Amino acid sequence: MDGDRRSHGLWAASAPPAPETVPLMDDDSADAVIVGAGFTGCSAALHLAAAGRRPVVLEAAGIGFGGSGRNVGLVNAGLWIRPDEVPEAIGAPFGERLIAQLGDAPGLVFDIVERHGIACEAVRNGTLHCAVGRKGLAEITARARQWRRRGADVELLHSRATAWRVGSKVYAGALLDRRAGTIQPLAYVRGLAASAIRLGARIHEHSPATGFEDLGGEWRVTTAGGSVTAPWVIIATDAYSAAICPDVKREQVMLPYFNLATRPLSAEALRSVLPGRQGAWDTRSILSSFRLDATGRLVFGSVGALRGTGTRIHADWARRALARIFPRLGEVAFEHGWYGMIGMTRNAAPRLHMHGRNLVSISGYNGRGIAPGTSFGRDLARLVLGEVAPDELSLPVTRLEPARFRAAKQAFYEIGAQLAHFTASRP
Ligand SMILES: Cc1cc2nc3c(=O)[nH]c(=O)nc-3n(C[C@H](O)[C@H](O)[C@H](O)COP(=O)(O)OP(=O)(O)OC[C@H]3O[C@@H](n4cnc5c(N)ncnc54)[C@H](O)[C@@H]3O)c2cc1C
Question: How close is the Cα of 338 to the center of ligand 1, in Å?
Fold first, then answer.
């Protein structure tokens, strides 16, 4: 999408084209200006347009340029942290509200896909959180218990059932979450954008917002080519925040994550590898994820950036890791590789900030942005519509909190992943 094959990889090669847009070239007005065209911004635009409002979306690069066009496509329920940890992380009454909202969020994604006819390889057959060893089994057992206590449709699978579902004997068990599923993420975000435009939203790509001016009751958001004036501004730039909202980015530590996609597997291999087409990831701290796309390519990912020495180290490791997980696949060749940055917050919970009157942002998804971004985008639309007040949302409004030792932590993640994969791939 940005001329670099390692930015959006397979998703850029297989997504339907983005809707055509033009950069902002004049002065305009709107009911809300949305900065950033990922899941959060496009969902906010879609819900505002569906309610008869006129949102304008400004996107610095292209629709889905950020995490939304680069991710694994696991439409998960809940957050990275366990349900019982959420109230501790964000306090009452928000914790249980957030768990309930994000438990239902995959349903919102699949409803939108169906309602708007978005072609994005959507499969709602559940996801598998695969346990590595006894520690991993204890982890998924605790998660299963905590979700079931809240009435969620999850099932703990023993090792034999897991082996059948995954097509591999390496896992001690798995948590099957039937609320969840997979999508082609770039196709989904482009579909959200196209649906929003059809309902009356305007989206301007290649239009980085460069400044906010408080006009007293309204905001003027400027770009190099023009400006948009509106009573509300939504900042939806998350880990890809460019210069205009440095505070949103400084609050997050960037964790690189890559994906490699094989050529389509043979019909025989597809009978055993993820035969139910669930998306999967494991309980390791340097985790691996794997899923199939619509053509039967296996998309395999882990922590790391495909740049410099990382390109070779991670690909070598991935080949060996796949041979260990799926020995019957034999030697695999990767046809696509790409990576992106996941924004991590101190307590692994997303952040809601009011930067000024009617100037709002939600960010810090910690690798869980498809369903949460869609759901928070709808929340932000409701805020603009006056249907909810900020304290009725499921996240507390917090002060910006720059991450401590950010550069050192980022270097540690990238170099640490290379070291771990280099060591693990030595014979
Ligand atoms: C490799 C990877 C794997 C992941 N896997 C998963 C997964 O399987 N499941 C899951 O749920 N989540 C996953 N995530 C997380 C998820 O992709 C993100 O949380 C989500 O995409 C965030 O969406 P967003 O709309 O808030 O931000 P983004 O999609 O990052 O969009 C922000 C946009 O803002 C634009 N922007 C920035 N500054 C400006 C400006 N000044 N003016 C205008 N526009 C601007 C950027 O260009 C960008 O397009 C993954 C992320 C990565 C990187």
Answer: 14
List the CATH code of the domain at 5-72+186-251+347-405: 3.50.50.60
Distance in Å, CA 340 to ligand 1 centroid? 9
**Residue whose C-alpha is closest to residue 144's, from 73, 74, 77:** 77
Quote the CA–CA distance of 68 and 132 in Å, as a whole number.
Answer: 28
Predicted confidence at residue 264, as pLDDT, reads 97
pLDDT class of 157 with cuts at 50, 70, 90? very high
**Is the per-residue pLDDT at 242 higher than 80?**
no
Does the Cβ of 192 fall within 6 Å of ligand 1? no
- Interhelix angle 185-198/94-115, nearest 10 degrees: 80
Gap from CA of 245 to ligand 1 centroid (Å): 15
The mean pLDDT of 256-261, rounded to a whole number, is: 98
The set of residues, in sequence order, having a beta carbon less than 8 Å from that of 183 and lying 6+ positions away, is 73, 75, 109, 113, 120, 121, 122, 123, 370
Pocket lining: 239 vs ligand 1, CB cutoff 6 Å: yes
Half-sphere exposure of 410 (CA within 13 A, CB side): 19
pLDDT 10s digits, 161-211: 999 999 999 999 999 999 999 999 999 999 999 999 999 999 999 999 999
Distances 265 to 111, 291, 293, 337 between C-alpha atoms, Å: 30, 12, 10, 17
Atom of ligand 1 nearest to the CA of 61: 47
Average pLDDT, integer, range 388-405:
94
CA–centroid distance, 414 to ligand 1, in Å, is 19
Residue 328 neighbours by CB distance under 10 Å: 11
**Is the Cβ atom of 305 under 6 angstroms away from ligand 1?**
no
Q: Does residue 362's CB lie within 6 angstroms of at least one atom of ligand 1? A: no
Average pLDDT, the chain: 96
Cα of 131 vs centre of ligand 1, distance in Å, is 27
Residue 136 structure tokens: 């991993």
Specify the range with the lowest mean pLDDT, choosing from 33-37, 43-47, 68-72, 246-250: 246-250
Tell me if 62 CB under 6 Å of ligand 1. no
Q: How confident is the model at residue 244 (pLDDT cuts 50, 70, 90)?
A: confident
Could you write out the DSSP letters of every residue in 84-102? THHHHHH-TTHHHHHHHHH
Report the DSSP beta bridge partners of residue 192: none
Q: What are the residue boundaries of the structural domains of the chain, listed by start?
A: 5-72+186-251+347-405, 127-178
